[in-house]
């Protein structure tokens, strides 16, 4: 049966960028049923263990006592104990209560309680006790009893209060009550012993020593700053470093300017020596007098006469006046040619004065630069001496500050502890009143049976273990079971899904499925161009791929009346060919088949397009010839069969389609095939899923 993706008529491109389907409940159920044996085996183990433990579990009694810890000014580690502020600080109070819990759970208190109650009463010997005692000493038995006692003991602080709940669990009710009461009594006795060690005098000696050391270090720091002239070391160091850098930059600028000025002086003197004292700007001879406008007047009169002649008759008075004026002007011009005027003009060279002034200013600047350079050297020496002094004082100042910080921390810590210890010694007599028993153990005894919780836990663990085993098996599985898995792993849409019985002859669903797949491929367009050359390829050799290619080719030829060429590179058995000779079309030796309008590649040796030595340019020309000769070309190949030819077809065809065989195609191989298609420059529009099996019941498929 085929389940094609919904095709949209007029689509412009394949849905290669569609979002892969999310993991659904159906996928989970399919994976569980596929690995049903592993899931059942993994779930059965914790269930059997839980049932066995539930059958051997015993009823236990828990006796609980309540202790209230009073945290007040008398507590030595409370801050501001001599102030008039709050009597209890929340953080210090919590620390005090937690310390009491740790004392209750200590091994000394547990050992004293076990000795008081008795090992055999607390933990009655079992059937094999006589044998185990032969291989262990009394000390080992006591250590194990203390460890078991601590495992049965629970001491916890009640939420939001300073009350401690102490519980002890035992199968015997009376033993549980006696052990809880004995534990509280031994805890109070151990608590009294803990606070009998006075330490205030020792701590005060340390405080005095730290104070004297701090005073000495402060004096050394002050002397060092006065000697080096330091106010703020960080700021002084930055100022000194910036001053040295600024002076160095100014020295470089002065040196550069000095070299430039020297070069300018040399060049100016050289050019000055080559200049003449005077230069002749021009010499001219002319007979023109200032204010002589005869030529201009003659031109104007001639233009005026032409204008008047076009408007008046010949011999008119106005024309005669203009002719008389023109004759007069011409006579003056003729007499002026007899007069000769000549003017000679000499101009002194202006560059001489300019270069002399420039040489003078450059020499003055050169002298000032020399004086400035000497002053900058002196300033740099002073700045470097200041920087060297700061560097010499840096290391001892850092060491002194580090020493002072360390001594300050120690001084503050010892001073705080000394004050707390003195208060602790003053309040040592009232220590017992800081912890009070609120509830006796016999007042609150609870009974608990773990049979039902163990069974429930076993069922829950069975579900978890089974799910984990199924998930682990699914993650380790290298094949695809459902089309959604292939779509999520490859990031490609599923174009068609064929079940395991699709190749059976006479399957009506297969014919409909092949038709739907052909329609989907024919309706798909890339850059407004239909798909004419299709390449089906698989990572491994499989009979399902040649079958799919042949059925699609027959669909295109017989049902769609398209001239179709089938190139089968993945099957050893060729397609049934018609009797008669063949021809070479587009570099492929083709032969007719019993199906009308269907041709098949017959002889690979006579097909130049199937030669891996063929240049890509010639291959593109042959592929163009195939497109003109056939309406549709279906190519099927696999990597083991023709790897180089397959890679070439990936680049030349219109679209590549991956064939994934259910439960056979390995994920790494399919992923590598997809990447090879992309690396060769081919376009992959999707995948077809072959050989799918259905593991869920039909009613569950309808509901999941």
Automatic annotation (TrEMBL):
Segments passing through the bilayer: 28-55, 450-473
Keyword Cytoplasm among record annotations: no
Keyword match Membrane: yes
InterPro entries (UniProt xref): Bact_polysacc_biosynth/exp (IPR050445), P-loop_NTPase (IPR027417)
Full protein name: Lipopolysaccharide biosynthesis protein
Organism from which the protein derives: Xanthobacter oligotrophicus
Keywords associated with the record: Membrane, Transmembrane, Transmembrane helix
């Amino acid at each position: 049966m085929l389940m094609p993706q919904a095709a949209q008529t007029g689509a412009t491109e394949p849905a290669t960028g569609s979002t892969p389907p999310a993991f659904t409940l159906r996928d989970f159920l399919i994976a569980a049923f596929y690995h049903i044996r592993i899931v059942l085996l993994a779930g059965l183990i914790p269930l059997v263990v839980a049932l066995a433990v539930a059958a051997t579990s015993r009823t236990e009694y828990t006796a609980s006592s309540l202790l209230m810890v009073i945290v007040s000014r008398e507590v030595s580690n409370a801050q501001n104990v001599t102030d008039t502020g709050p009597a209890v600080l929340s953080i210090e109070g919590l620390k005090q209560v937690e310390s009491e819990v740790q004392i209750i759970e200590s091994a000394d208190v547990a050992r004293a309680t076990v000795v008081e109650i008795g090992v055999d009463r607390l933990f009655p010997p079992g059937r094999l006790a006589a044998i185990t005692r032969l291989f262990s000493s009394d000390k080992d038995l006591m250590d194990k009893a203390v460890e078991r006692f601590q495992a049965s003991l629970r001491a916890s602080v009640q939420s939001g209060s300073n009350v401690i709940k102490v519980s002890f669990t035992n199968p015997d009710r009376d033993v549980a009550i006696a052990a809880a009461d004995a534990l509280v009594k031994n805890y109070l006795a151990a608590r009294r012993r803990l606070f009998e060690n006075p330490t205030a005098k020792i701590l005060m000696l340390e405080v005095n020593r730290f104070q004297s050391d701090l005073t000495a270090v402060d004096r050394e720091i002050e002397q060092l700053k006065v000697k080096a002239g330091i106010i703020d070391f960080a700021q002084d160091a930055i100022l000194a470093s910036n001053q040295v850098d600024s002076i160095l930059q100014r020295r470089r600028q002065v040196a550069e300017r000095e070299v430039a000025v020297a070069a300018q002086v040399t060049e100016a003197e050289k050019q000055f020596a080559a200049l003449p004292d005077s230069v002749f700007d021009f010499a001219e001879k002319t007979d023109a007098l200032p204010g002589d406008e005869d030529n201009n007047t003659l031109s104007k009169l001639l233009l005026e006469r032409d204008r008047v002649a076009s408007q008046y008759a010949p011999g008119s008075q106005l024309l005669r006046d203009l002719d008389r004026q023109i004759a007069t002007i011409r006579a003056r011009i003729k007499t002026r040619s007899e007069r000769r005027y000549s003017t000679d003009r000499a101009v002194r060279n202006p560059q001489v004065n300019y270069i002399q002034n420039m040489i003078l200013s450059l020499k003055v600047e050169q002298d000032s630069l020399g004086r400035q350079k000497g002053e900058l050297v002196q300033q740099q020496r002073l700045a470097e001496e200041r920087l060297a002094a700061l560097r010499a004082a840096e290391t001892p100042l850092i060491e002194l500050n580090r020493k002072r910080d360390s001594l300050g921390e120690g001084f503050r810590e010892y001073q705080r502890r000394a004050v707390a210890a003195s208060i602790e010694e003053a309040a040592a007599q009232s220590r017992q009143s800081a912890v009070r028993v609120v509830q006796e153990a016999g007042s609150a005894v609870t009974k608990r049976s773990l049979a039902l919780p163990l069974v429930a836990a076993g069922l829950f663990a069975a579900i978890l273990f089974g799910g984990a085993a199924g998930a682990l098996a699914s993650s380790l599985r290298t094949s695809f079971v459902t089309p959604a898995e292939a779509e999520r792993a490859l990031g490609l849409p599923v174009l068609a899904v064929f079940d395991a019985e699709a190749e059976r002859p006479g399957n009506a669903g297969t014919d409909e499925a092949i038709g739907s797949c052909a329609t989907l491929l024919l309706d798909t367009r890339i850059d407004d161009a239909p798909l004419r050359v299709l390449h089906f390829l698989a990572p491994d050799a499989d009979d399902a791929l040649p079958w799919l290619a042949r059925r699609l080719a027959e669909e295109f030829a017989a049902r769609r009346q398209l001239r179709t060429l089938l190139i089968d590179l993945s099957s050893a058995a060729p397609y049934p060919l018609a009797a008669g000779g063949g021809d070479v079309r587009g570099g492929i030796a083709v032969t007719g088949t019993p199906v009308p309008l269907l041709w098949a590649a017959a002889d690979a040796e006579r097909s130049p397009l199937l030669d891996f030595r063929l240049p890509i340019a010639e291959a593109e020309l042959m592929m163009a010839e195939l497109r003109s000769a056939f309406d549709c070309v279906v190519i099927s190949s696999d990597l083991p069969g023709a790897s180089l030819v397959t890679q070439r077809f990936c680049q030349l065809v219109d679209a590549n389609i991956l064939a994934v065989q259910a439960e056979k195609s390995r994920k790494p191989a399919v992923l590598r095939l997809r990447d090879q298609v992309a690396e060769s420059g081919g376009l992959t529009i999707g995948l077809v899923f072959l050989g799918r099996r259905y593991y869920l019941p039909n009613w569950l498929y309808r509901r999941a």
